Amino acid sequence: MIRTVLGDIEPESLGVCNAHDHLFIRSPQLPGQELDDADAALTELHSFAALGGQAVVQWTPWGMGPRLADLPELSRRSGVHLIAATGLHQAKHYDPAELAAVRVHLAELFIHQLTAAPVRTGLIKVAGAFHHIDEHARYVLAAAATAHQATGAPIGVHLEGGTAALAVLDELTGTHNVAPQRIILGHLHRFPDSAIHRQIAAAGAFVGFEGPSRAHHAVDWHLLDNIAALVDSGHADRILLGGDTVTASARSIADGPGMAYLLHTLRSRIEHELGPEIATAAFITNPARAFSTRWSG
């Protein structure tokens, strides 16, 4: 089953999926660019749905303004399935005192949000550091693994600049015995090394490409090549695609690409250059497998 904010659904009901995005988010790292407008969030969902979009995964974790209580109504009004995240981002996104207080019961917090909260989450979001796993990341990865073992929830990883992917994968699978099929490694388009992408896919983890590029991540021109490299090596079943809208200026109502970009631009390019079956895998088949699990609790 896939755990949405309106309850569990069969994987085949998920449909066309934006596998990594944000309806709400706030961080001291993005002052003045908070996503905190429910009407704007609904407009984004409507624009996505108008092009055939049926599901969005919000990767906003605990403490970064996910507004979980608002998500069920947005899902009902838009007709779009929403999957929410628990978890914890890098330390820089939190007040130090707030972070210190939550660290003492981190796994318990994740498990509660996955299984017992009024609006249940369906993903554990964690984050690596730039080219390494720092002490904070190691602690959060351990808590995420504990919550995964207790619930079955998939683990999604923010890779800073797309780096440290193999180290994070080894930490989760080798140290904490998380099956690679339950791991989604995000932002790999920011480190467009096809050899690493193939290694991740061969291990069984999901390869997350999110776009369009931001001004300081000008890597869209690598994206189709990276996808093609995975397809050519027999790993079309490991590809996930998302929009990763993290600032108000990136929304379509602010003349940004918004969520609709995935379908009106990227899906069309994939269909034209790689074939409709690859687009179907990336937007429908793969997300249905990546976000489904045998839930405990």
TrEMBL record:
Pfam families in UniProt: PTE
Xref: SUPFAM superfamilies: Metallo-dependent hydrolases
The protein's required cofactors: a divalent metal cation
GO molecular function: hydrolase activity; zinc ion binding
Alphabetized UniProt keyword annotations: Hydrolase, Metal-binding
Residues with PTM N6-carboxylysine: 125
Hydrolase listed as a keyword: yes
Binding-site residues for Zn(2+) 1, renumbered to this chain: 20, 22, 125, 244
Cofactor note: Binds 2 divalent metal cations per subunit.
Residues making up the signal peptide according to the UniProt record: none
Residues where Zn(2+) 2 binds: 125, 158, 187
InterPro entries: Metal_Hydrolase, Phosphotriesterase
PANTHER family assigned: PHOSPHOTRIESTERASE-RELATED, PHOSPHOTRIESTERASE-RELATED PROTEIN
Family under the similarity heading: Belongs to the metallo-dependent hydrolases superfamily. Phosphotriesterase family.
Record's protein name: Phosphotriesterase
